[in-house]
Amino acid sequence: MLSLGARSATKAQVLQGVGFNLTRAPESAIHRGFQHLVRSFGVSSKDLDLKMGSILFIKKELQLQTSFLDKVKRLYDTEVSTDFSNAPAAQKRINSYVEKETKGKVVNLIQGLEPLTAMVLVNHNFFKAKWEKPFNPAYTSKSFPFLGKRSVRVPMMHQVEQFAFGLDPELNCSVLQMDFSGDAVAFFVLPGQGRMKEPEQALSAGTLRKWSCSLRTRWVEVFIPKISISASYDLETVLPKMGIRDAFDKKADFSGITERDFLQVSKATHRAVLDVSEEGTQAAAATAAKFIVRSKDGPSYPTICFNRSFLLLIINKATETMLFLGKVGNPTMF
């Protein structure tokens, strides 16, 4: 969305920095693709709630180009608010909006809004779903060791079920696929001890396709910690490392947003919150029957225990789009 109002090198850096080759993908095609994704995500059912949206907060005095406003509304269904009279009031209003849209999960996103701030562009997404095969809370261990630089005790969920599961010998990791009810799936990736770099660096659409094709559905004993984590990133330190530099200094060219005023990006913040529990999101009934107790003479199942750092990916199946990507080093870091 920022690229819609950027010009010259600023525009090129934004689009190339997030991975687009402008000789292969025209800018208009990039925006049409995102328009399609945003509209595809606007689905809700009793099992899956997936929402994405944007809002533009601007000062009344800022005279925006009508073409920019038209494009952000038409392509991204962006709301526009001009109630930006003073910085503290604007900060409160923006944070209230984000908290409401994320059902209370993301709070106080904007902190210390500067008096010179003329425009704030907020993007939010919200994902909430039930497991297709939920865990039974009765089988959750209240205190299980999770190993790391500083070992912690975590609630550990447990079940024996049929899941798509396999080993990737090339990347030295185990991969478990768990489906949500609805059109989403989670991949849990457990690297060999001390081998996180290999799967982390190999993550790509091709790697995901390889896992999807090679995993085999089988009975497997699964231990997954209940997760409640939150992470914040100051993107003004991250994006320049990706090549998006001019947007943050005096070289910035956002004349596609306004010609009368000079704009540059002063702050870019990203916050993600993830909760993983037995039922996924809501209470699930009759899960006890899905737990199989093993005896000494019973069949043996492969066991996967996520009791050390692992990767977690949540994918929207209909669009093959990654909704969430995280590395869990401490499941209790909220």
**CATH-derived topology of the largest domain:** Antithrombin, Chain I, domain 2
The gross shape turns out to be: elongated
Radius of gyration: 22 Å
Beta-strand percent range = 25-35%
Count of runs of 4 or more consecutive helical residues? 8
Main pleated sheet: 8 strands, mixed
Please tally the β strands and state the result: 14
- SSE ordering: HHHEEHEHEEEEEHHEEHEEEE
Secondary structure topology:
Elements (H helix, E strand, L loop, with lengths): L1 H4 L2 H10 L9 H15 L1 E2 L3 E11 L7 H11 L2 E3 L5 H15 L17 E11 L11 E6 L5 E17 L4 E7 L4 E8 L5 H6 L2 H10 L1 E10 L1 E8 H4 L30 E8 L26 E3 L4 E7 L4 E8 L6
Parallel strand pairs: 2-3, 9-12
Antiparallel strand pairs: 1-2, 2-4, 5-6, 6-7, 6-9, 7-8, 8-13, 10-11, 13-14
Summary?
Helices cover about 20% and strands about 35% of the residues.
Descriptive report:
Helices cover 22% and strands 33% of the residues. The protein is of the alpha+beta class. The chain folds into two domains: 2-129 and 233-271, 2-Layer Sandwich (Antithrombin, Chain I, domain 2), CATH 3.30.497; 137-226 and 277-328, Roll (Alpha-1-antitrypsin, domain 1). The strands form three sheets. Strands 5, 6, 7, 8, 9, 12, 13 and 14 form an eight-stranded mixed β-sheet that branches. Strands 1, 2, 3 and 4 form a four-stranded mixed β-sheet that branches. Strands 10-11 form a two-stranded antiparallel sheet.
Features:
Antithrombin, Chain I, domain 2; 33% strand; single chain; four-stranded mixed sheet; eight-stranded mixed sheet; 334 residues; alpha+beta; 2 domains; Alpha-1-antitrypsin, domain 1; 14 strands
